[in-house]
Amino acid sequence: MAEQKIAVVTGASSGIGAATARALAAAGYRVIVGARRIERLEALAAETGGEARTLDVGDPASVTAFCAAVPPALHLLVNNAGGALGLEPIAEARDEDWETMYRTNVLGLMRVTRALLPNLLEGRGHIVNITSIAGRDVYSGGAGYTAAKHAARAVTETLRIELNGTPVRVTDLAPGMVETEFSEVRFHGDAERAKGVYEGLTPLTAEDIADCVLWVATRPWHVNIDELVVKPVAQAGPGKVARNAGL
Ligand code: 8X3
User: Fold this and answer.
1) How many CB atoms lie within 10 A of CB 37?
2) pLDDT confidence bin for 1, thresholds 50/70/90
3) Atom of ligand 1 at shortest distance to CA of 142?
4) Centroid of ligand 1 to alpha carbon of 36 (angstroms)
5) Which atom of ligand 1 has the smallest separation from the CA of 197?
6) Whose CA is nearest to atom 6 of ligand 1?
7) Fewest CB atoms within 10 A around its CB: which of 86, 90, 106, 124?
8) Kindly report the CA angle at 113 between 218 and 184, in degrees rounded to 5?
9) CA of residue 4 to ligand 1 center, whole Å
10) Model's pTM, two decimal places?
11) Domain that residue 173 falls in
12) Residue 237 — φ and ψ, nearest 5°?
């Protein structure tokens, strides 16, 4: 029997992370899920037969503790934790929001990756960073998030160069609009405003992105999907959507 592959998914208590954990478990991976909300995580681990561990990617001590419990050979790391806060123009930028976005989307991604690189080298593994189309384009009011995601993309590309010559694969998976808790978090819990983001169009679902993670992770070992940009049909860019067009 082939050895069971091990995956780590960060930010797995909901949305893309949770859907990815489910898809990977269904494909036979043993999935270690990390997030701050441990109750949700434990329910997910029980459902998927995996392991739940508290992880705050913005807290170095939490990252160290989480990564220390990962087996020496890791096959897949999905850096999904992160998100957006606020939609203020730069003239009204909120330091706290920007600091949190950089701490989670950039520093968190770096810290988890750095800590698990030995395990990934040992497992001839694969790093899938969930970035965003915001790592490729900018839009008014989005500077804190787009800047952080541009940085996450730069880190991902740098990593691929630095790991050249090793068997570790590196993928930048960049979704457009996915209906998850993303917008509610961005608008500090304003559910009505969040709902408006997806009105009049069919956004991607967390499962659509999980499907992409599974696809990039299951190519033959010599194939590296460098980048995968995925948007709903109704979206042409971060600030460019067709509403009420039957899409
Ligand atoms: C979010 C992408 O298009 O919703 O990462 O701004 S979008």
Assistant:
1) 12
2) low
3) 6
4) 22
5) 4
6) 238
7) 90
8) 85
9) 34
10) 0.97
11) 6-241
12) -170, 175
Residues in contact with ligand 1 (CB, 6 Å cut-off): 132-134, 176-177, 238
Q: Report the 10 Å Cβ neighbour count for 69.
A: 10
Residue 235, strand partner residues: 241
The structure tokens listed for 115 are: 């800590």
Per the residue annotation, which of 29, 102, 139, 145 is the catalytic one? Answer: 145
Q: Is 191 contained in some domain?
A: yes
Q: What is the pLDDT of residues 113-141, one digit of tens each?
A: 999 999 999 999 999 999 999 999 999 99
Model confidence at 239: pLDDT above 90: no
Spatial separation of the C-alpha atoms in residues 241 and 166, rounded to whole Å: 40
Identify the pLDDT of residue 2.
Answer: 77
In this structure, is residue 74 part of a structural domain? Answer: yes
CATH number at residue 24: 3.40.50.720
Q: 156 CA distance to ligand 1 centroid (A)?
A: 18
How far is the centre of ligand 1, averaged over its atoms, from the C-alpha of 131 (Å)? 10
Tell me how many domains the chain contains. 1
Is residue 246, in this structure, part of any structural domain at all? no
Alpha carbons within 13 angstroms on the beta-carbon side of residue 234 total 17
* Residue 145 annotated in active site: yes
Candidate of 129, 140, 177 to mutate for ligand 1, largest count of ligand atoms within 8 Å of Cβ? 177
43 domain residue, yes or no: yes
* For range 181-203, the mean pLDDT: 95
Q: What is the DSSP letter of 134?
A: G
What number does the ligand 1 atom closest to the CA of 149 have?
5
